[in-house]
Predict the structure of Nucleolar protein 2.
Amino acid sequence: METKSRKLDAAKKAEAEEAEAELQTNIVYEDDKYVLPADDHETLQSTDLQVVQARIQEIVRVLNNFREMREGNRSRNDYISQLLKDLCLYYGYNEYLMEKLFYIFPVSEAIEFFEANEVPRPVTIRTNTLKTRRRELAQALINRGVNLDPIGKWSKVGLQVFDSPVPIGATPEYLAGHYMLQAASSFLPVMALAPQEHERILDMASAPGGKSTYIAALLKNTGMVFANDANKDRTKSLVANIHRLGVKNAVVCNYDGREFPGVIGGFDRVLLDAPCSGTGVISKDASVKTNKSEQDFQMLSQLQKELVLSAIDSVDANSKTGGYIVYSTCSVTVDENEDVVNYALRKRPNVKLVSTGLDFGKEGFTRYREKVFHPTISLTRRYYPHMHNMDGFFVAKFKKISNKIPKKNDDSADTVEDEEFTPITDDSGKRSRGGKKDTAAKTEEVEKISFNPEEDDELIRGKFAILLFVWLFNYKKEKKETANFILIFFFFFFFFFFFFSNVIYSIASQAIENSEGYQASSKEICINTL
Ligand SMILES: C[S@@+](CC[C@H](N)C(=O)[O-])C[C@H]1O[C@@H](n2cnc3c(N)ncnc32)[C@H](O)[C@@H]1O
């Protein structure tokens, strides 16, 4: 009897607590069904996060079992629009960004994503294999009381730091360049790029150099890394990291990436870790939640599209070991990822997507809301904080098939159909009259805008002849008679002389290219111009 009465008391108490909670959270049920609040205005004025959170949970519950749990004739949109408002209020995003991110995921997963953005990601470091090995580095840090573990099976150089009694960015090992403080996600594009020793690689947007220095380490300081960044101030930290980590094969330059391959081209591989909105790194920079407008996203997407074409055009399709381009962002929005890749496939039919070689990550979207993308975009990879416990990231890898860019007539469509491309040009790049009628309609002409060493040689030879003229006229001011003699001699034997300069030039350039000092000296020139 006593036990029964105690049970009744407990049930009553639970009911009372539930009623109190309902009162506090404004959750109202009718016939066991959650009732959406009627007055939106009142809702938006509510600042009680507990109320908002409870409502979010209820709406998610209804949306996950909509047929059975919806109230009367309420539509899915009614619930979603209330949910979006509540999510903005609860997590502090602007409405535009909230909607953009919300639709990337199924409802429950979207909440997990927003929750994960509230929690810091693990601190990770990358062993600099130019100076040490992971096991030795781990031991050295453990001796200082650092609690760490390998990052995961997928990386041989990463360590995750759980806690440390010393600042991890100021240990003697850090100062000696034995490691780089680097987010785990930031390893992925370099792993996808898979640089091979002795290759020439361009890192188009490289500051502060986390990826450039990783590329240099994989190259074992052979070949060359062109570490470029448009922001001159940021190249200071890039240079500092290059020096600290003992990188000896890097050239630092400061161009707008869109100027490549006009600056230099013919690379074996190009990494474009593009400037982006940072929606993958909100846990590091919460200002992203509110400081990005629709216009910002449009501008970023435009810049990314221009940069990716430039990256593609900077690669030599005939590279014996490479011919690859990796495009990555630390953003999860479709505009900055699949949309950009799809645009590149449409504008550059001379590239195709290939596997990133990364054995985890979610497939890129081939469809997103009203958009349909090229089916091979499933080869790209997405990374999420709630799923992979790393920053949100995107990685795509292209292989360049040809240095010729077939132009399409129809640029209007935003999506790519899976069409076969048949060039109507011969191997020398000349336009051919042949080809099927329908193919001819799709292709216009061949443009060859990538790096061409022969064209460059001709330019340099032309400059050589002009310089010779200038020198002779200057010399004439000092030694008139001798100069007159040389000038007459020069005019008489102009064609013979010009021919000779070509021969001298060829012999000299061959000798320079073969000499060991070639790379070191060009590196010095570039670094000193900063
Ligand atoms: C995501 S960050 C690069 C991070 C770098 N890859 C790393 O791992 O340390 C993007 C960089 O792009 C640079 N950038 C912005 N616009 C650019 C442009 N038009 N050309 C080249 N770099 C650009 C920015 O200055 C910024 O340093």
The two ends are 88 Å apart (CA to CA). The pocket of S-adenosylmethionine is lined by residues 186, 204-211, 229-231, 234, 256-258, 273, 275 (CB under 6 Å).
